[in-house]
Write a structure and sequence with these properties.
single chain; about 270 residues; alpha/beta; Rossmann fold; seven-stranded parallel β-sheet; globular; oxidoreductase; Sc_DH/Rdtase_CS
């Protein structure tokens, strides 16, 4: 899909990958609703983009996991620019590390990293099917294909996000709805270092695992890769190409892969002492 003259919503747009996506979309000629739970951050990103591309964006404070607030984002897009063509379900959280995580933490991780995608799709996909066109971009993670050392909530919710994106593509792909699923490893954002900042050994190990697994990319570079994939209508977006080899190794011999991951975790844990 060509993004020029299209209308997009980007959640988690107040920083990191989301801000970079909004910037790249506007530069490519799209109109963008920049959404973030942190309203001042969303407004600041929108203002910065509009300085270079007047009127290209509007910033909105919203919780991307709440149906009525997603509905509000769609209404803002409609009011300012027209019907939504692309939805970037980018908002995400890491979640607390370890097994001793309460139900509230599990619910929030699943709400933000998975159910937010489901709730947005419920509102958008029926209209896209009627129009015969629409694009849903899910920000998952390499953890959704592999795993995340340390955080069960992150690993499980990102696996589920990949699964939902697959289902969405299979179910509606022949009706004009395009789907892409972004699965990066390390990207230089606050989210990357959240585990390290948690103060727990497992959290620090989780951050070290991501940082040591491959080159940490700049969000702007990831955004460029995403837009190229959207233009080509590719499902799986891997800014770190080595993830595909890791994924193949996992599928080829699951038990061997699990043993290797346990060894890797032990070596990282030893480095933190």
């Amino acid at each position: 899909m060509r993004v020029a003259d299209k209308v997009a919503i980007v959640t988690g747009g107040g920083a990191g990958i989301g801000a970079a996506l909004a910037t790249a979309l506007a530069a490519a000629g799209a109109k963008v609703v920049v959404s973030d739970l942190d309203e001042p951050a969303a407004l600041a990103v929108s203002e910065r983009i509009n300085a270079d591309h007047p009127g290209a964006t509007v910033g909105v404070g919203a919780d991307a996991a709440v149906t009525e607030e997603i509905r509000g984002l769609i209404a803002v897009a409609q009011q300012h620019y027209g019907p939504v063509d692309l939805y970037f379900a980018n908002a995400g959280i890491v979640g607390a590390p370890g097994l001793d995580v309460g139900d509230d933490d599990w619910d929030r991780a699943l709400d933000v990293n998975l159910r937010a995608h489901i709730r947005a799709a419920r509102l958008l996909v029926p209209e896209w099917v009627e129009r015969g066109a629409g694009y849903f971009v899910s920000t998952a993670s390499a953890a959704g294909l592999l795993t995340q050392i340390g955080s069960a909530t992150y690993s499980v919710s990102k696996h589920a996000a990949v699964g939902f994106a697959e289902w969405l593509s299979i179910t509606y792909g022949d009706q004009g709805v395009r789907v892409s699923c972004l699965c990066p490893m390390g990207v230089n954002t606050k989210l990357l270092y959240a585990g390290q900042d948690s103060g727990s050994e497992l959290g620090a190990t989780a951050t070290r695992a991501v940082v040591s697994a491959g080159h940490v990319l700049d969000p702007a570079d990831v955004a460029d890769i995403v837009l190229a994939a959207v233009a080509a209508e590719e499902f799986l977006i891997l800014p770190h190409p080595q993830v595909l080899d890791m994924y193949r190794h996992k599928g080829a011999d699951y038990d061997r892969w699990l043993r290797g991951m346990r060894r890797y975790q032990a070596s990282l844990s030893a480095e933190t002492h």
